[in-house]
Amino acid sequence: MRINKEKTATWFLFLGTFFNPLGYDALLKWLMNTTGSYWFSISIFYLLSVSCFILYFLLAKVNPLKLFKRKGN
Q1: How far apart are CA 12 and CA 51, in angstroms?
Q2: Which of 36, 52, 71, 72 could form a disulfide with 12 if both were Cys (CB 3.0 to 4.6 A apart)?
Q3: Residue 64 contacts residue 35 (beta carbons within 8 Å)
Q4: Which of 55, 71, 43, 64 is nearest to 15 (CA)?
Q5: What is the CA radius of gyration of the chain?
Q6: Where do the domains of the chain lie?
Q7: pTM summary value
Q8: What angle do CA 41, 44, 46 make, to 5 degrees?
């Protein structure tokens, strides 16, 4: 079975936005109850989100620094 890199990259982009702690309060509340710490729970969400975005950029072969450089000109 061959995994399509573009489809996998899109899934990681979706997961990166899902784990963004600005939403999905039920999951964040559950994690806060489990860990007992607000800041630790928020840190976990941000780490998951950043990891998914990095995986998206790697799998999609997109250099985010080049995108920002192009938009500035």
Answers
A1: 9
A2: 52
A3: no
A4: 55
A5: 15
A6: 5-72
A7: 0.61
A8: 110
Alpha-carbon separation of residue 13 from 32, 37, 50, 58 (angstroms)? 24, 27, 10, 11
Nearest to 57 by CA among 21, 1, 19, 6: 6
- What are the φ/ψ torsions at residue 67 (nearest 5 degrees)? -65, -45
Contacts of 6 (CB under 8 A, 6+ apart): 59, 60
> Quick one: which of 53, 64, 47 has its CA closest to 14?
53
CA 15 to chain centre: 5
